[in-house]
Amino acid sequence: MSDAGAGGPRPPAALPDLIPARMLNEFAYCPRLCYLMWVQGEWADNLETVEGKHVHRKADEPEGPRAEVHTRSLHLSSEAMGLTAVVDVVEREGARVRPVEYKRGKTPLLPEGAYEPERVQLCSQGLLLQERGYECHEGLIYYAASHERVRIRFTPELEARTRELLADMRARLSQGAIPEPLEDSPKCPRCSLVGICLPEEVRFLTRAGTVRPIAVADPALYPFVVQEPGATIRVDHERLVAEAKGKELASVGFERISQVVVMGIVHLTTAALQQCMSRGVPVVFLSGSGWFYGMARGLSHKNVELRARQFAAAADGRFALALAKSLVAAKIANARVLLRRNGGPSQDVLDAMAAAARQADETDNAETLLAVEGLGARLYFSGFATMLKDGKALGQRFDFEGRTRRPPTDPVNALLSFAYTLLAKDWAVILESVGFDPMMGYYHKPRYGRPALALDLMEPFRPVIADSVVISALNNGEVGADDFFEREGAVLLKPEARKRFVGAYERRLMQEIQHPLFGYAATYRRIFEIQARLLGRLLFGEIPSYPSFRVR
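Below the sequence we write its predicted structure tokens.
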């Protein structure tokens, strides 16, 4: 990939003056992990990180500088070494002190007593104590799983290695280039950031090899959707509660919420909004008819580097065109698959759509691409009615003659518009959580209030998610002729039917499929995140092109 396509030459990263000892540990373990955590501000919990926080809970309680034998959570720093640390515990024996580091696992069976990253982290704390004038020649690592303290001596060799890694970390991370993934390492499956790093996916896309499946569990998080007019969302201890007219409608713990979706005239207390912001839970606002107003969340994702590259690449016409071609071609191809599987269009229509997908891949300008996309849409919607039950089963109101918007003039178009709004909303949430600005797109030009990047990346998923939900909801009878009403020429869903349709949409997102490119099982919601992160890998120049999602 050219420098222009990757957002231009990479300037040196503006690293803080002081390197945390914890990050030195991560660098010794995996330079790429350190870069993701420290430079880009990425983080994700797994069982091991949660257990680690639990082990540290006592050590993290500050104890003050006058403790006679132990001092907990001691902050140290050195301008000369460019190093800072928070020591879990400092033990004193007369004039001597020893830093104590708490770890969640069992004592490793190694001659050195601990792995190098742990020894280096502990030694860096010892160096800081030495600079403060303390006599410090050894430290202790407490392994919680085996209830054992291991003594680590600060030999000249270990001190030299610590200083060497410190200098290497500063030099490598200042280059502004993310380190490559580890090569077939057993560390990757256990890493909490494996779903962010995507080591095997990057290797597959750069070397055309095979992907080693790494199971990344979908977090058990779900949208908290409130549609009842006049309802209020409030906080009750660690739960969000929705109530109306003195009656509780629903409640859920914060640990289960991915986003709060407010539809129509629904009130949110200040305490509820503050809790959502502090926990990183976005609050999405939709109109009663499904128009996406926007969302509120706390401080933006820390990955400023990603947003800088996103905006820089938007000025590169070649990058924007290449990405748009991939997205439009995948959208047409996926629409053709949906027609072939569920409908009865003529072979001429299917052949013309296949040709349109190829033409989208081969076009050399944005104007032609727009025309090709329009042709693909006309062909697709000309056969869309063949995927629905016959008119007698659905009623005459469901006669579908083509796509109409603003306003939708029939029930099918009303459902399509609502489904596309839900899809755009979810893509905006995903992009924001990954670190992108959803408003700066490449194919859809930025416009006030429009999440252009969300509209870009959702293109291949319109047929397989939104259209598929509409077809199944109608054919399965979840939504019927009596579930709509008209207002000033627009056909809209009634509130109760809207709830059922949102349920059908959420079930579709939680459906687990085999990823068509990487071969492992994942839900559609998880695949959204994978696709968003792959765009990030493209912007950093790690993969040659964007692999748009195509169903088989």
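Residues 1-12, 46-68 have pLDDT under 50 and may be disordered.
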